[in-house]
Design brief:
Blueprint (H helix, E strand, L loop, with lengths): L10 H10 L9 H30 L8 E4 L6 H8 L5 E3 L2 H5 L4 H4 L3 H5 L5 E2 L6 E2 L8 H5 L16 H6 L8 H21 L4 E5 L7 H7 L4 E6 L2 H19 L7 H22 L8 E5 H6 L1 H11 L5 H14 L9 E2 L1 H10 L1 H7 L8 E2 L1
Parallel strand pairs: 1-5, 1-6, 2-5, 6-7
Antiparallel strand pairs: 3-4, 8-9
């Protein structure tokens, strides 16, 4: 991906973010900042027109089919699962175009592709996963283009990483911030439901894992799929993804590798400390957990388990389409990393509760993962 999620940011919100973080802006990133500002400013009048013509219709939407959320830490297989579930013709989702041009896609949906096909095409930061304008996309980027209260801004303003990390959690938000985040997500759900003609909406943003309880309160009938994976593999890949993502998106100096590593381990710990508590708030029939290893080993059987556990309709119709996607990914290879002793020790020290809960053995020796 050659573009930036801030291309589609509300212009006034963009200026506010720059002001909030002005003490840390990097002069070396001035060209990137001005490029994003130019794109945001160029789209501003179209966003106003879209609001004028569609806002009342969107707010009047009745969501008849509760949303379905994919949860799981970054690099746990959430994207693969997202791509498989999005094959279901009865399910809809936000793609890259509707996500990164959230304020404009209803008005400009026939015109934006020719401008954004190049910017929204390529390989994703951190791996070789194909990235296309109509690929399923994480809604957190659309939320980030609307409000401050999102973890996503950490990749653009990493010097304030603690503030943006806190925003991922219900207890990191004030009541007013929580209200603003919930209202933004509800508007987003209504808008994409309107656009997708009432289909069930499938969402996937890894930071939602830290907000499952809050999402359940917001959408009491929503259903959740949690995918988990060996923390060593997850964290090595996440650290690599954060480093590459920050380099590609930052308006500030890139933090040291040591800080990113520490941040990633602590964030993983906070997410799963919160998630395992939130499980008690969600009825068992609305949450299913799967292991990434099972999904890779037997993808169709694992998908059938998801549909059966959550009482989701349409699996027989979706199955051949899902199988076709499985077959198309046979040549894909995951990144390979070597587990450093220092990182292994951090993970073992901080995440013992995760290993115990999911019955994953700890490692005591370094080596390739």
């Amino acid at each position: 991906m050659t573009g930036h999620y801030m291309y589609g940011c509300d212009y006034d919100h963009f200026l506010h973010l720059l002001e909030e973080n002005r003490d840390h802006l990097d002069p070396a990133q001035e060209a990137r900042i001005q490029d994003c500002l130019h794109q945001s400013r160029r789209l501003r009048p179209y966003a106003k027109i879209e609001r004028f013509f569609w806002d009342k219709r969107i707010r009047a939407v009745k969501v008849e089919k509760p949303p379905l959320f994919i949860l799981g830490h970054w690099r746990s297989g959430t994207t693969y699962l997202f791509n498989l579930l999005s094959c279901d013709p009865d399910t809809a989702f936000m793609d890259s175009l509707t996500t990164f041009t959230f304020h404009n896609f209803l008005l400009l949906r026939y015109h934006l592709p020719k401008y954004y096909n190049q910017a929204l095409t390529g390989d994703r930061c951190g791996d070789d996963m194909e990235f296309l304008p109509h690929s399923p996309q994480e809604e957190c980027y659309a939320i980030a283009d609307c409000i401050d209260e999102t973890f996503t801004h950490l990749i653009t303003f990493p010097q304030n990483y603690q503030k943006y990390m806190d925003y991922a959690f219900e207890d990191g938000l004030t009541p007013e911030q929580r209200r603003r985040w919930c209202e933004t997500h509800e508007y987003l759900l209504k808008k994409i439901t309107y656009f997708r003609k009432g289909k069930r909406i499938l969402f996937k943003s890894p930071d939602n894992t830290a907000k499952m309880g809050m999402l359940h309160d917001l959408y009491p009938e929503a259903k959740f799929i949690h995918i988990y994976r060996d923390p060593y593999k997850v964290l090595m890949s996440t650290i690599n993804m954060f480093e590459e993502g920050i380099r590609a998106m930052t308006f500030e100096p890139v933090p040291s590798h040591e800080l990113i590593e520490k941040m990633a381990v602590q964030f993983y710990k906070r997410i799963y400390t919160r998630y395992l508590k939130d499980m008690a708030r969600v009825p068992k029939e609305q949450l299913v957990e799967i292991a990434y290893s099972d999904l890779v080993k037997a993808p169709i059987d694992t998908l059938a388990q998801i549909y059966n556990t959550l009482s989701l309709p349409g699996f027989d119709r979706a199955r051949p389409l899902m199988q076709a996607h499985v077959d198309s990914q046979k040549a894909y290879r995951t990144n390979q990393f070597t587990l450093a002793p220092s990182l292994r020790d951090q993970i073992n020290s901080e995440l013992g509760f995760f290993f115990a809960h999911y019955h994953i053995p700890m490692k005591t020796a370094e080596g390739a993962i």
